[in-house]
Amino acid sequence: MAPVHSGVATPGLLRRLASLLYDTILVTALLMGATAVLLPLTDGEAIPSLGRVATIAYQAYLLAVVFAFFAWCWIRGGQTLGMRAWRLHVRTADQAPLNLPDAARRFGAALLLWTPLALILLAGHRAGLLAYAGPPVAALFLASLGTRRRPGWHERLSGTRVVMTPKHVPD
Questions:
Q1: Radius of gyration for the alpha carbons in the chain, expressed in angstroms and rounded
Q2: Element housing 100 (H / E)
Q3: What is the predicted pLDDT for the residue at 125?
Q4: In what helix (H) or strand (E) does residue 110 lie, and over which residues does it extend?
Q5: CA torsion, ordered 40, 41, 42, 48, to nearest 10 deg
Q6: Which of 117, 70, 77, 87 is nearest to 12 (CA)?
Q7: If you count Cβ atoms within 10 Å of the first and of the last residue's Cβ in the chain, which end, N or C, has fewer?
C-alpha cells in the first residue's frame, strides 16, 4: 500500500517508470509527426544538412512541441495518457491543478533532470563514455525521481507532486 501524505497516496518508482515509458512512446510518435510536417518545407531533406541555424531552430521546435504536449495534458486534466494508464495525477504541492507557469516550472525542472542522461547517450559512442559514465548517471537519474516518502528534486524545485488517482468503484 502506498504511503499517504495529506490524504493523497504517493506512487512508487515502478509505477512512475511505467508511466514514463508509455509517455516516451507517445512523445516519440508526436516528434515523428512534428518532423513529418516539416519535410515538405525542406524538400524531404534532413534538417541537419540544412545548416547549423536550421538544426538549432529544428531542435527548439521539437522542444516546444514536447512542452506543448505535456503542458496541455497537465493543465487540461492533470495527467498525460501514460499517467492515466497508471492512475497518476500531477498537482501543485497544495493539491491544486497546474496552470501554465506551474507546467513550465515542472517541464524545466524535469528537463534539467534529463540533460545529463541525454548528453551521455548522445556522446556515448565516443571512447566508451557510455560504459564508464552511463551507469552512475543512470543511477543518479533514478535516484532523483524520488521515493514514496520523498518527492524527486524536480518536483521540489517546481512545487508539484505526482499522486495516485483513486480507483473508480462502479456503482
A1: 18
A2: helix 100-123
A3: 61
A4: helix 100-123
A5: -110
A6: 87
A7: C
